[in-house]
Design brief:
4 helices, three-stranded antiparallel β-sheet, about 30% helix, four-stranded mixed β-sheet, alpha+beta
Length: about 120
């Protein structure tokens, strides 16, 4: 795909939840319980000229219909999502590359070695 919108979702690590807008951990107290839906992690990608130009991350909630066409890849394996998002973080530019890190950290996969390597590459 050279241009357009792509979205996919994958399993969040245990304890990660959200309401479609805010992301949190599912901690509560004896007096308070957050309204928080466990996973999945949802990623929306915008492509132009085969490059990722924007990336948004959500947890919970549901996809809404778009006015423009969107390619929905459905649920993918967390490890596959991490591999793709790491390539965006390493090879992308600006905001999209920076925004690829959050969904990597939320994935139900062992991500810390790659996140550490990514941080060292960026310093």
């Amino acid at each position: 795909m050279t241009a357009g919108h792509v979205r996919f979702s994958f399993e969040a690590r245990p304890g990660v939840c959200g309401n479609g807008r805010n992301i949190s951990t599912s901690r509560s107290t004896s007096d308070w319980e957050p309204w928080c839906e466990p996973g999945p992690v949802r990623v929306a990608v915008e492509l132009r000229d085969r490059r990722v130009v924007d990336l948004d991350t959500y947890v919970g909630g549901r996809w809404r219909a778009r006015h423009e066409p969107v390619t929905d890849l459905g649920e993918v394996e967390p490890a596959d999502a991490v591999t793709y998002l790491l390539s965006v973080a390493r090879e992308g530019a600006g905001r999209a590359a920076e925004r690829a890190v959050l969904p990597i950290a939320l994935a139900n996969a062992e991500t810390w070695p790659e996140l550490l390597r990514l941080a060292k590459e960026g310093s």
